[in-house]
Amino acid sequence: MSSPPAPLSQGVGYGMLVGVGLAFAFGAAMITRVLKIYAKEDNRHSEMFMTANRTVGTGLTVTAVISSWAWSTALLSSAAFGYFFGVAGPLWYAAGNIVQIGLFAVLAIQTKLKIPAAHTLLEIVRVRYGPVAHCVWIFLCLSNNIVAVSNMLVGAAAAINALTGVHIVAATLLLPLGVVFYTVLGGIKATFITDYLHTFILLLLICIFSIKVFTSGLVSGPGELYDLIVEAGKQNPVSGNQDGSYLTVHSNLAARFALSQLLGNLGLCIMDTGFWQKAFAADVSAAVPGYLLGAVGYFSIPWTLGTIIGVGSVAFQYLPQYPVKPMTLDEINNGLMLPYTAQAIMGKGGSGAVLTMIFMAVTSTTSAQLIAVSSIASFDIFKTYIKPHAKDHEIIRVAHMGVVGFALFAGGFSIMLYYIGLSLAWLDYFLGVVTCPGIIPTVLTIMWKGQTKTAAIVSPILGMMTGFAVWLGATKALFGEINVTTSGSQLSCMYGVIASFVSPGIYTVIISLIKPESYDWDKFMEVELITDDLTADEIAVNTRSQHLSPAMIKHMKKMSKVAAIAGGAMFIGVWILWPYAMYGSRYVFSKKFFTGWIVMCIIYAFFTLILVTIFPIWDGRKQLMTIIRGLLGKKKATKGEAPTYHGEDPVLETQVTAEKGDGTGSHPQPGLEGHELHARHRA
């Protein structure tokens, strides 16, 4: 069956891809100019371009985490898995994604405690294990970035094609265009600021959809939607669900999906250098609360969309307003029930809203990926192996080239996947086989003194080989042949993902125990700031995080415990107790319970919208007022004025005051005293 005519013209599609993308680039250029003049933040320096001088506050960290994880894939996949599995799909999809963000908060604060001057994850690996391990991690992280970006572009291009008729190849190549410009112009700070705008627009549209579903005349309320879903379940019962119902968390297929999705997305998080870049950029006081609040806020996006739009599509597809009857398997696998349902609810306006959502999601997350890969190219490859004594401006030039080069490569790679015939669902099931091998070795690099260099080098390589072998072996055993269709089955991919995750942990522990070593954490102090071309004030801002006073170290240890407890609570409460209790009860939702479930989804979405709208403005009010006064001509930063400090923690404010010394403007420079203080008090 052929797809219906696109509700929007190709002109609208190209206008969004090119016009809006370039508008964001122009906005980033203006923001960068304003920050340079009035906040003394110059992204022509490596520390600012890659780590934002490590001064990003809690508010922007929250929106950056939500934006980084609110992929176009998440929007489309949560709807698809709601359609596949019923209410269990969005619940487990949302729970599986916030767990890694919560647990990553532990790594973020531990990294700031042990390696405060780090620029990239790979730099940490190189300092601890040497160049061979460094090259292994370059491969692991770049593979992760390629899979991540390709996953986004494949799904987003299919949705844009369905909405506007723009050819998938053109959409794939044009989507990163505006992102390249504003990433090159603004660096990671521009990424944080545009993340704010992207996340606000995305959540605003989700809230509008959530209300419009029940006010558009499509259904009169949650009760009528419930009746339609019950009837749809009778006509097409879901295999493995209690009574074949879409309205139960007891879903065998969803439970399988939950495990592979948890592990695969854990790999996407831990092995995504973009997440580490944002952790390095966050202020010491912002890292843990920023990531934890980001995890809490993010949950509403896939849960709300997947439940109201995804599960709702099961019923909506039978209504006369629905544009496609029936949907093809390719359309379902690519999550196109989201744009189709939006069209049924709001006509062309709904289609335009989904187009905007997809564009906002894919450009925001792509920007973080481009920064991550450009940092690898410039810092971990160029400065480390090609020109060790490269100046700051040379590193930035290579970073810019890395942004452009990776955008072109990712677009071409995604087009290849499209012509091979790989769908969004195929990539969702498979990606953990590639992303998982480095998880445990990476975590142990930060958390365990006993992991040896040999173990770190060998275990992820053997783990990836084991994962691929199990994945292909399971496909052959289950289906008798290996092709695009059979290799993307949920079960064979789940076996491969589990093998990729578990086996490196076994390998690294065994190899490490054969010839034990104990690493000296103080060697991480070999990681130094890139200080050439920086002013004294800029050096002072960056070195604040290295001069860890006893009070600051005590605070960081406390926050590390908070992060561990909160991350563990998220895993136990949200991923285990809540869904598995409902799974074990075999409960099928009543109309009253379903109505309450829908109401909670909507309330949660509005809570997140308020969080990402108001909190960053309040948290950054000091710098915002400085900029506003500057724009009004009341104050302009002078040469000797230190950049604005964003932290609010009293321990850190005390530290900053101490560093300012006698008020003459002098600042301590990095040296032996700071290193010795750090060594004496660090965990």
From TrEMBL:
Membrane topology per record: Multi-pass membrane protein
Name this polypeptide is given: Urea active transporter
Family note: Belongs to the sodium:solute symporter (SSF) (TC 2.A.21) family.
A Pfam entry, by short name: SSF
InterPro entries for this protein: DUR, Na/Glc_symporter_sf, Na/solute_symporter
Region annotation Disordered: where it falls in the sequence: 640-683
NCBIfam families reported in the protein's UniProt record: sss
ATP-binding recorded as keyword: no
Keyword Membrane: yes
Protein source organism: Exophiala sideris
CDD domains documented for this protein: SLC5sbd_DUR3
Classification lineage: Eukaryota, Fungi, Dikarya, Ascomycota, Pezizomycotina
PROSITE patterns recorded: NA_SOLUT_SYMP_3
Transmembrane portions of the chain: 12-35, 56-85, 91-109, 136-160, 166-188, 200-219, 295-319, 368-386, 398-420, 426-448, 455-474, 494-514, 562-581, 593-618
Compartments, record wording: Membrane
Keywords: Membrane, Transmembrane, Transmembrane helix
Domain of life: Eukaryota
